[in-house]
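Handout, section B. The chain below has 401 residues.
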Amino acid sequence: LARAFADGVRDAGRDVTLIGLAATDELYFASGSLAAPAAMVTASHNPAAYNGLKLCFAGAVALSAGTGLDEIRDMVLAGEVARTTDETRRGRLRETDMLTSYVSHLLELAPVRGRRLRVVVDAANGMAGRTVPAVFARLDVELIGLYLDLDGSFPNHEANPLEPANLRDLSAAVVRERADLGLAFDGDADRCFAVDETGRPISASTVTALIAVRELARHPGASIVHNVITSRMVPETIREHGGIPVRTPVGHSLVKATMAEVGAVFGGEHSGHYYFQDFWYADSGMLAALHLMSALAEDDLPMSGMTAGFERYAASGEINSEVADPVAALERVEASFAGRPDVELDRVDGLSVIAEHWWLNARASNTEPVLRLNVEAVDDATMVNVRDSALTVMRALPDEE
């Protein structure tokens, strides 16, 4: 598929550089360092039956529905495909490996120095199986690898660490190996999830806050972007360390655009995407992992001790519901809270209901036919009450309304 795509680009008279097997953030590195638009054949974290393309403009600038993707779709459907009939004007092809320069760049941005660490990495048979050994070979860190072999059938578990079941092997290995940290990557390795030394998952909001503190130490007073469903703790932490929190809808193209607009140094999403100004505003799971290891190596505390201060609220996690009419379901939730003086409603992304001691967000998925619900509160009892009330209304059948 990659060769066929390259042939099509060359047929349009453009030169092509093939970089071979690569993680998505390695593609962003190539796009940024070579100042070229880029494409990757990948289905990201989706199961083996899926495939697709990720595209970006030169400099790793996101290409989305609002910035050209819809136009490309319309051109393809209309058969408006550019080709050159002059063989002498056909684009040239060269092949190069970017892995070594990619690793060097990441290690310049987040060097890991201090005490020696033991780290378990679950690559889920995805692209991290190629990039992780190359990065760790340059670190004073003992790598304990799980599922590093590249295998697109994903024989051990799906390459989606957002699902708790896919972290079980990692958590067990961290405890068994008495490791300092566990890291899990998705299929194309642009997202990273972590577990502490006890095997307990670290929320993406906590990782966002921890890296934000590090970036604000380097860039005092800077802006940090977070999406609508990161923990309330994230903007609190940013303000406590002198930064400016900027709230955005969910989605990498929106986060990247907002970061560029406000000049933010860092951005984080609940889904395990972490964005860096010094990485062309692009997301990099590996760079986030290096920040975690760097923070841990510089400190005597275990990871559970380093993250304890960030865990202030009870969270539901993301709950998916298949509903016949997502628009009607959101309207039911909104109607159930509308008019209450103790809540604020906003539509920045889906529906957010914000109260003093809790908040919820319900939104349609960008990639699946489901509604996603996230709830956070000051304690478990409040979270459960709000969660169950929202789910009852959201999942109500028409004859139950």
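Note. The mean pLDDT is 93. Compare this with the example in section A.
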